[in-house]
Design brief:
- 28% of the residues lie in helices and 22% in strands.
- By secondary structure, it is of the alpha/beta class.
- It folds into 2 domains: 33-144 and 159-325, Alkaline Phosphatase, subunit A; 431-547, Immunoglobulin-like, CATH 2.60.40.
- Helix 6 links the parallel strand 4 and strand 5.
- Helix 1 packs parallel to helix 6.
- The two termini are 18 Å apart.
């Protein structure tokens, strides 16, 4: 393992040195090289726990960055936040509230606009192939290395927009021992806390009520979560060295933020909407870091520390502003280069995010708005506000004392902007299509029933068997659309749904061994069925048992 790691490091250094010379040659020929964009999002990273103590290498690099100390996400699970970052689209307008949903097609998203202007758009993660991220203009080449992708575009002299999502800070919290505090030890086997902590180190989702955490668990939970931050710090150090050794740092806008934060027993749970199925919009889940390293020529536009409130809707306007490209449509957010005279944050989230039990008929949402010290949180039944809570973040930053009854004037001030957004709130956009496609009774036999081509039958699959790439293939007409039904896991990990697939192959992408073992294998078993979207005859079930 040590030899493999040394070889990998050596190869990266050689690649960086070669690219460094090429980039210098390009810079000598081009007076003002085009600005590249690197957007790095870190999974479940809270602002209050991301400190120089846990991430000294990152914060050393951040001495050259602008720091936005009052930044928030716009939902309590990943997809709406990433969509907001990559499109500038408000969560009230996305229509993405669970798995299997995506923003409507038929419009030119900002990334496609950048592509037309000459920027190469890309990611290298299978994660980015999720149906939640369809129609946003992201091109995914999974299986290629992050540094290799960037190097190839720079060598070709192509300006690029690259998105990478760092996943290892997600549940389960199981960082290598080297990143845990000195003297860290698990509870003794006979201690009931041992089973509770083992769940956090093994499961990618810990549903509300499935584990009865106690207050004494918090120091251990914090240590495990903090270990993930230390592991990210080591990862970022290597990436930062790559950017500087290649010379790309000079003409690259680097943005580092998180998708959302994480609850660490503040409300009795550990996780966020998709892992607890009890999503909130309290500060521990929405308050996240934002750091921006500006390219050469823009250093004077921002102070080192910025206390004005910002959110994810401000990222895409900033990118278009820096590139001096007309966006083609109005963004709801504003550029980080501009000072705001007024600002009000708005957010909305489904309760269970990706894991919603019935994605096409979600009724319960949490919406919120904040203006300075005041924060209003509303529970809604689809578009109708049913219950409100008011908090004074100045005197009650932990949001423990609900004060709407004693401050009706503040409620009257904040509520209208929220109800206005709820009135035009875009609900899931797949429900009607699926109801039409399903029609009446469904059958498992009949003309047009697809047959499985890969795998041909139910079986046990491992990372080695799949060679790291997971895909399904069935018989049929490649020009038609198919409905792929899945049921995975059991108990607290049970999840099911449908994916509309163009053609007769669903490519889930290429996964690392760690990704497979950490976030796929715990589900144990997945059952698939598939049918032509216009035909009621399902294929035979395909049952895949997942092995390490």
């Amino acid at each position: 393992m040590a030899l493999m790691r040394l070889t990998s490091i050596f190869s990266s250094v050689i690649l960086a040195l070669i690219l460094f010379g090429a980039v210098l040659a390009i810079r000598e020929q081009v007076t003002t090289p085009p600005v590249n964009i690197v957007l790095l999002t870190v999974e479940s990273l809270r602002a209050d726990r991301f400190t120089p103590v846990l991430a000294p290498k990152f914060f050393a690099a951040a001495r050259q960055a602008s720091v936005y100390k009052n930044h928030r996400g716009i939902a309590s699970w990943t997809a709406p936040n990433i969509i907001a970052l990559l499109t500038g689209l408000s969560p009230f307008k996305q229509g993405v509230h669970a798995r299997g949903q995506s923003i409507p097609g038929g419009r030119m998203p900002p990334l496609q606009k950048l592509a037309k202007e000459g920027w190469t758009i890309g990611s290298v993660q299978a994660f980015a192939k999720s149906e939640n991220f369809e129609n946003i203009g992201m091109r995914v080449i999974d299986g290629e290395g992050l540094e290799g992708w960037i190097a190839r575009r720079a060598l070709a002299g192509q300006p690029f927009f690259f998105w990478h999502h760092y996943l290892e800070t997600h549940l389960p919290y199981n960082p290598p021992t080297a990143f845990l505090p000195t003297g860290f030890r698990m509870p003794d086997a006979e201690d009931p806390a041992s089973a509770r902590i083992k769940a956090l180190r093994r499961l990618p989702s810990v549903r509300e009520g499935s584990v009865k955490f106690e207050a004494r668990d918090k120091p251990i939970i914090n240590a495990l979560y903090d270990g993930g931050i230390r592991e990210f710090d080591a990862w970022f150090q290597n990436f930062w060295q790559f950017l500087n050794m290649t010379g790309l740092r000079h003409n690259t806008l680097l943005i580092v933020t998180a998708d959302h934060g994480e609850e660490l027993l503040e409300r009795g749970n550990v996780g966020h909407a998709s892992t607890t199925r009890a999503g909130t919009l309290f500060e521990e889940v929405v308050r996240i870091p934002l750091f921006v390293w500006w390219p050469e020529g823009f250093e004077n536009i921002a102070r080192i520390e910025n206390v004005e409130p910002t959110d994810h809707l401000d990222i895409m306007p900033t990118i278009f502003d820096i590139l001096d490209i007309p966006p083609g449509s109005t963004f709801p957010g504003g550029s980080l280069r501009d000072r705001r005279e007024s600002y009000r944050w708005h957010a909305i989230t489904s309760r269970a995010g990706f894991a919603e039990e019935n994605p096409d008929n979600i009724r319960r949402f949490i919406a919120a708005t904040a203006d300075g010290r005041w924060k209003l949180v509303a529970e809604t039944d689809r578009r109708e506000v049913r219950k409100i809570e008011l908090y004074d973040l100045r005197v009650d930053p932990g949001e423990r004392e609900e004060i709407s009854a004693s401050h009706p004037d503040i409620v009257r001030q904040l509520l209208p902007s929220l109800t206005t957004r709820m009135a035009s709130f875009v609900l899931p956009n797949t429900g009607g299509q699926r109801e039409t496609a399903k029609g009446g009774n469904e059958s498992e036999a009949g003309p047009g029933r697809p047959n499985w081509i890969f795998p041909t039958q139910s079986r046990t699959v491992s990372w080695e068997v799949l060679k790291g790439r997971a895909y399904l293939e069935w018989s049929g007409n490649p020009s038609r659309r198919y409905v792929l039904e899945y049921k995975a896991g059991s108990g607290v990990l049970a999840v099911s749904g449908e994916i509309v697939v163009p053609g007769t192959t669903k490519d889930f992408g290429k996964f690392s061994r760690k990704y497979w073992d950490t976030w796929v294998v715990p589900y144990g078993e997945i059952t698939f069925r598939v049918r032509d979207e216009a035909n009621k005859s399902w294929s035979a079930p395909l049952v895949l048992s997942l092995a390490e």
